[in-house]
Amino acid sequence: DYINSWLPEWMCPPGIKLGGPNRTKMHLFNSLMNSIIDGESTTRHAASGDRRKIVLLDEFAKVENGEAMRSATADVTPCRIVNSTPAGAGTEYSDWINSGQIKVFMLPWYEHPDKGRGRYVERNEKTNEWEIKSPWFNKEVLRRSPKIVAQEILMQDIESGDVFFSIANLKQHRDLFGRKPISIYNIDFKNDVTNEKIPKIVKTRDTSRIKVKKTSKGSLSLWVELLLGRLDQNKTYIFGIDTSKGQGASNSIISILCVETMEKVGEWADANTLPYDFARIIVALALWVGGARPRRMPLLIWEKNGPGWEIGKLIVKKFLYPYYYRTRTAGIVGVKVTQKYGYHTSQQGKRDLLQLLDNAYAQTNYVNHSFLALGEAERYIEY
Fold this sequence. Notes:
By secondary structure, the protein is an alpha+beta fold.
């Protein structure tokens, strides 16, 4: 409306200025071209059932129903233009632009003729990276918070949100220890191994019933060399397990920790494995990983919230795996180990665990080589 109000009459289609017959609420009609521009509220079902040539999703990072709107507009048009300043990691906008599914065009502040006037580069003493600055930028930094500068000026997706982990700690850890896996495998029980046979296989540590195949796109990544086809059997291992629904939205994860070196030596990750099948893979991988005497098998630790409850039931009661974490009773003098398997996380309990992990990253008390895990940590939001 503002632009049209300044245009001469001969440049405007009839009746499109504010108050005209072709300019009604959230509707603009060009009778000369028979074209329409309509507006929609940012509801869950925006434009659902409609058909358009182009849809513009403006400031998409800041809408409340981003995932639903992305789904609703998929069949509306073959062309969606998504425009926004960032609003932190974990938004649908953030996931979309980082998905690799769309072309991304950056409009940096320093290309603005006024804001970028007199621009220059300067090395950041803390990060050792070169940064573009200008007189305008320097004034804005003084009057805005670092978070707002990251969001409204620097287009920094992660720094603009309420991320839990220290980005500086994660970047340092990735630079020091992050690397591609040495080898990648797929692992499971052999096809003729039924659930009824697994307890005996566990009891006898029979690794001959497990199939391990080296591949380039498997689920199991290893950051150590194998000794006689397995991990070092003089070391002790712990599995940290997080279970998803196996419907493609998020990964089920097994993190393999070497107790003696406090190093993550392996990681199993897949988003499409159902909990029932995941439990079998956990036990198969545990038998293959093995470890030092007397147990010769890893300790399994899984979160029993959500799908993890089913995993625990299968591992403990169906497959009779003997070494697993038991719930500790909090709020008493000392620690009492219960007979309940797995651990249940409250909001505060999870925050305490993640804070310990953040400290471990900062002090390098724990070494994580996985780019996948470190990348997810960067995007972990504190609510």
